[in-house]
Known about the structure:
The complex is a heterodimer.
Chain A: E1 3-4, H1 7-26, E2 31-33, E3 48-60, E4 68-80, H2 83-97, E5 101-108, E6 117-135, E7 147-157
Parallel strand pairs in A: 2-3
Antiparallel strand pairs in A: 1-5, 3-4, 4-7, 5-6, 6-7
Chain B: H1 11-47, H2 60-64, E1 67-71, E2 74-77, H3 80-86, H4 90-95, E3 105-110, E4 130-132, E5 142-145, H5 155-174
Antiparallel strand pairs in B: 1-2, 3-4, 3-5
Amino acid sequence: MASYFRESRNVELSLLYYLTNSFTSDWTGITTIKTFNDVYAKDVNIPIVCVRLSQTTTARTEIGSDTLDNKYLLIIDVFARSDAQRLDLTDYIKDKLKSGWVHYDHSHASGDNTTLDRTANGRDYVVDFIDDSKIDVIGSTDEKDRYRQSISVSVRKSS
Amino acid sequence: MITVTTIGTSPQQLIDITQSVYLKTKKGLEETAHETRKHMVEIVEKGFQGKGKRDGSTGVLEDAILVERLDEDSFGVGNIASMNVVAPYWGLLNSGGMVSPKARIVPGYFGNGSPPDLAMKGTGVGKERFNYSPFVYGGGSFIMKVNSPIGAVNYIEKTQDWLRTMMTLKFYSWTRQVKYSKT
C-alpha cells in the first residue's frame, strides 16, 4: 500500500523538485538538498541549494469554516563557490520563483521510501518575498559558510 | 423647512480624520514594535526547546533583542551593531552554520569543568552548558570535535513573516475612518 504525503511535505518537495529540474537544465553541478545538516556532509560539495519548510501559518478561510488557509514560510539557503556565483544563483532562483510552480502530491510504495511518485495537483505561488540577504557566519572558516545567501518566501497552494 | 445636508468631507473633518489616524498609527506602531520583540524572543525560546534548555542558560540573546526608537515615528527591533557586541552569535543561531574553525576542534569544558560525556556523543541532547576556554595544558579544558552544524532557527524570517500579516491587519484598524454625519 502506498504512503501518501500531506500538504506541508508536498509543498516543500514540490519546490525542491522544481528547483532541481531547473538547475539540471540551466546550470551545471548544483546540488539541491532538503536537510540543512546534510549541507555540511563531507561528500556534498558546493555549490549547494538547500530548500526547507520553516514555518506554517494556519487560519480559517472565514469564520465558522472548516477549510484552512495555510501559508508556508520556505527558506532557500544558497551555499556558493564565490561571491559572484552567490549573486547569480540568488537572482536565478528569484526569477524562477516569481511565476510559481506545479504542486505535486507525493507518495511512495510501501517499503520503498527512496522512489517518490508524483501527481500534479494545482500550483504553488509566492505570496510574499520575505527576505533576501547575504549570510555572514561570524567565526566560521568552513568553506560552505563563505558565500551564503538566504532567500525566504511565503507560499500558498492554489485551491 | 429646508434641510441642508453636508455631502462628502469638509476640510476641517479631513484634518480631524488625518490627525486621528496619525495618532492611532503612531501609538500602534510603538505597541507593534514591542509585540514584535516579544514574538521574536518566543521564537528564539521555542527554537531551542527541542534540544532542551542548557543548565545555566543566561538568555543573553533574548536580552540583546531590544526595541529602539529610530525617530519620532519609527522603531527598530534588534540593533545589529549592539547585538554584534553583546550576542555575536545571533546570526549563527538564525541562519545556522559550522561554529568552529576549519580544524573543527573547540577547547572548553561542560558544567563546572567536566569533560565531554561520551554517552552523549553525537546525540546533541546533553543538558550541560558548554563553556569555551582556550586550551592550556593542565588548565582543565578539553578538546571537542564538532561534527554537526548549528541548525538554523530563522527567528528573524519567521518574525518578518508574522509582522507582515500583523501590519496588514493593524493598518486596517488604525486607518478606519471616523464616520461623519451632519445635517
